[in-house]
Amino acid sequence: MKKIIFLLPVFVILALIANAQQVLDSPPLDGAYVKSNVVEKKPISYAYVREADVIWSKRIWRKIEFKEKMNQPFYYPEIPHNNWRSFMTVIMDALKEGTITAYDDSPTDEFIIPLTYQELITRMEGVDTVSMQRSYPPYDSFDTIISIKFNPIDVKRIRIKEDMFFDKQRSVIETRIIGICAVKDNVDPQTGLFRAEQVLFWINFPEARPVLAKAEVFNRQNSAAKMTYDDLFWKRMFSSSIYKEDNVYDRKIVDYASGLDALLESERIKNDLFMFEQNLWEY
């Protein structure tokens, strides 16, 4: 009994020292309260749809430009902080962890060939030869090799593939995103001029939803009302343009229209879908 009474203060002192050491090791709280509800959030489940209940459907391909004001939450922040990461940073982190799978681009935009994270990085990174001129006589030109490193901020647009269908069981028209494609600008390293769009990879959106549901995104109206990237897609809080609809020729809009005509064709398809939905109901 005497030994227990003697050892009790020793245990208390050791516990206080351990607690103090833990406080010193952990960073101070950056905020007024501990934020945890986003980390534990799960995506909203889709309603079950039978094939027999789908009496109409159409596949649409859209393009989301991050430079548009409404889509800027996808692009920023360039440097992660306060649990905020850009959309591409979230995707690349998930690919590195193996949480989601990347698929190689195919002519039909199907998920056929999976890619490992290392294969993906090898494709996106590499070396390029640039011709330069010496700054001293005889000012001759020479070739030099520069290393190209992938940075998530280089991706300034994404493509989405989605299915729009009418479910007669629930009497609703619903749009579900099937896949997301990361697109990077291919720029001349010497002149900085735009060459073409470079498709990096596709991901399956339903597979990525659990990851996107835990990734916090900036809310312009209220920072306390937390939102995630899954919320942005679920509520369709983004601006997009249609670049393809399923057709007998399996061609994109740019294959038969260009410039202003391509923009008008995109708006025509969007308006046709809107009018189709409106004309389903009679009052």
Q: With helices defined by DSSP (H or I, 4 residues minimum), what is the helix count?
A: 7
Major beta sheet, strand line-up: 3-2-8-7-6-1-11
Number of strand segments: 11
- The shape is globular
**How would you spell out the order of helices and strands?**
HEHHEEHEEEEEHEEHEH
Uncertain runs are none
Largest β-sheet summary: 7 strands, antiparallel
SSE class: alpha+beta
Radius of gyration: 26 Å
State the separation between the terminal residues, measured CA to CA: 87 Å
Walkthrough of the structure:
The protein is built from seven helices and eleven strands. By secondary structure, the protein is an alpha+beta fold. The strands form three sheets. The chain has a seven-stranded antiparallel beta sheet with strand order 3-2-8-7-6-1-11. It has a two-stranded antiparallel ribbon with strand order 4-5. The longest helix has 24 residues, at 2-25. It is globular.
